[in-house]
Write a structure and sequence with these properties.
With 304 residues, the chain is mainly α. 83% of the residues lie in helices and 3% in strands.
Length: 304
């Protein structure tokens, strides 16, 4: 019951956070893909970040890595896969290449830093430095991009969105703590390792804000927001989730992570992104392929 309450809190809190963030972006006039890759992705990655922070404080490094990589796998295979089954995504933004490169590069970097089996203090410094650079680059892109017409607003709307943002943040923090505490108890009672439960239960649960936000955006025709959200969230799952958590407590990386989870995540990214640079879109066939690969991976992981 506590796990369910935590999930509901995270979903609702993430929803309010995103709605408020998108509203603030509209009154400033920021383009969709930049909103998705920065404001929305930071908001929807907060559940993973909070779960990882609490896990780092508790000394559970397996949960940090499992939540981070599990969320990347879920975002790419499940969320982006389902999105493109609903509607193919056209790739038209010039800065998409940078955001895709950031996503893939962050994951490859995590693998390289983890070859020695741990994320050291110097590794943490690199991740946090790149996090600052990534956010700064998106702010710079936003400042130099073609802005849309700013949306007029009233003082009541401003107050309402500030309140929603604050309440959403509180719900995400409380929900993440409930998910972590109850999830660990569930896992141990079932005899499942922390790493597996983090890659599946925690990751899918904490990725629900991305799923809800992205599917809603696609159904409303805002594919750029959805695509940018996933690209940004995947990048932040490495730079922010692992970077911040490893600053609190040492994070260890197993051979399974290096030889299985990271390669599968790169495979999913390759299925969805690489052909898109030639076709200028992510097709339904690519979405189906990614969804099937992710589903197969989760089945093997849980059954094994």
């Amino acid at each position: 019951m506590l796990f369910a309450v935590g999930l509901i809190s995270v979903i609702k809190g993430g929803d309010w956070l995103v709605e408020a963030a998108v509203w603030f972006a509209k009154i400033i006039g920021i383009p969709q893909i930049i909103v998705g890759a920065t404001i929305v992705s930071i908001g929807t990655t907060l559940p993973e970040t909070m779960i990882a922070i609490f896990a780092a404080i508790a000394g559970s490094g397996d949960i940090v890595i499992g939540t981070s990589l599990g969320s990347i796998l879920c975002n790419t295979g499940l969320v982006l896969g389902l999105n493109n089954l609903v509607r193919a995504t056209r790739i038209t933004q010039v800065d998409t290449l940078f955001k895709v490169g950031s996503m893939v590069g962050a994951l490859v970097l995590l693998g390289l830093l983890g070859i020695d089996g741990r994320i050291s203090g110097f590794d943490t410094f690199i991740l946090l430095l790149l996090l600052v650079a990534y956010v700064a680059s998106n702010i710079w892109t936003s400042a130099n991009a073609h802005h849309h017409e700013k949306q007029p607003y009233t003082s009541n709307q401003l107050l309402s969105n500030v309140i929603h943002f604050i309440i959403g943040l509180v719900l995400v923090i409380i929900g993440a703590r409930l998910i972590l505490d109850s999830g660990v108890i569930i896992a141990r009672n079932l005899g499942v390792s922390d790493a597996v439960i983090a890659t599946t239960l925690f990751a899918i649960g904490s990725s629900l804000p991305e799923l809800v936000t992205s599917v809603t955006a696609v159904l409303k025709g805002h594919n750029g927001l959805s695509f940018g959200n996933i690209l940004g969230a995947n990048t932040l799952n490495v730079l922010m989730v692992v970077g911040v958590s490893s600053a609190i407590s040492p994070i260890f990386i197993t051979r399974e992570v290096l030889l299985t989870q990271i390669p599968v995540a790169l495979l999913l990214m390759g299925l969805l992104v690489v052909p898109s640079f030639f076709t200028k879109q992510i097709t339904r066939a690519q979405g189906l392929a990614a969804f099937l690969v992710y589903t197969g991976y989760i089945l093997v992981l849980t059954i094994g």
